[in-house]
Design brief:
Layout: H1 16-22, E1 41-42, E2 45-50, E3 53-58, E4 62-64, E5 67-70, E6 76-80, E7 83-86, E8 89-90, H2 91-112, H3 118-131, H4 133-136, E9 145-150, E10 155-161, E11 167-170, E12 173-176, H5 180-190, H6 197-214, E13 230-235, E14 238-241, H7 244-260
Antiparallel strand pairs: 1-4, 1-8, 2-3, 2-12, 3-13, 4-5, 6-7, 7-9, 9-10, 10-11, 13-14
Length: 261
């Protein structure tokens, strides 16, 4: 077999999958995600610890290139009674992963008679992200956030992942998606230990507001259509989603403050 040759200016570098595709070879069996394939992508999600648990939130916009493909996508999903997962990345595989994750946790609880530990849930999701690696190397990236209330330690905990399935626990907050830089900066500046539920809810709403203002792929509150981010708390009493009426009231305050400034 003759080895391929590249000129200095055409060197593909260390990206082996990219080199294989340039040669017309595909080492993976999954769908090739090139620029001609309009695949919806989901952004932006955040999760923040507070005194009694965790607040998780995500905007509702999904984009396909420069087009808005969905305005009401739900990126935050309840995994079980005391945990939730938020998705960012390619929407289709991400939604499928969430549904399978929910089913696996439910199956375990029915078979064993008790829920899987929070660390066990985080590890299970890690294995699922790792299983998506071949697709991720072709552009079908899924990078979730996992959060929950640990019944053993009595605290809220946050986990983030990389595309290889690496699992990392965060102590304060985590943000993912195209607007994560802007959202994370707002949370970093406003976070402090011992924040109450209401304070953290206002903080994540402001973070998503600023992300939407700077990132076109992140959707802000759509007052005309009545579309607001998905926001949920996870504490000892379990997963609770905030209703849109409460979010509308809170955003009216944020908009008024932004207008004055």
């Amino acid at each position: 077999m003759t080895m391929p040759r590249f000129t200095p200016g055409d060197d593909p570098g260390s990206n082996f999958p990219a080199m294989m595709r340039r040669l017309g070879l595909d080492p993976f069996n999954s769908i090739h995600a090139d620029s001609s394939l309009a695949v919806p992508h989901a952004t932006t999600c955040v999760a923040v610890r507070y005194a009694d648990g965790v607040v998780m939130a995500g905007d509702r916009r999904a984009t396909s290139g420069n087009l808005i493909s969905h305005r009401t996508m739900e990126k935050v999903a309840q995994a079980d009674r005391h945990s939730a997962v938020a998705i960012a990345g390619t929407a289709g595989p991400a939604m499928e992963m969430v549904k399978l994750f929910q089913l696996q946790l439910e199956h375990y609880e029915k078979v064993e008679g008790q829920a899987l530990s929070l660390d066990g849930k985080a590890n299970q999701l890690s294995a699922m992200v790792r299983g998506n690696l071949p697709a991720a190397m072709q552009g079908m990236v899924v990078v979730p956030i996992f959060a929950g209330y640990d019944l053993l330690s009595g605290v809220g905990r946050l986990f983030t992942y990389d595309v290889t399935g690496g699992r990392y626990e965060e102590t304060e907050y985590v943000a993912t998606g195209s607007g994560s830089l802007h959202a994370g900066t707002v949370i970093k500046l406003g976070f402090r230990e011992g924040l109450s539920r209401d304070e953290v809810v206002n903080l994540v709403l402001r973070a998503l507001w600023e992300a939407a203002d700077a990132d076109s792929a992140t959707g802000g509150p759509d007052v005309r259509r009545g579309i607001y981010p998905v926001v949920a708390t996870i504490a000892a009493e379990g997963y609770v989603r905030l209703d849109d009426d409460e979010l509308k009231t809170r955003y009216e305050t944020i908009i008024a403050e932004a207008t004055r400034s």
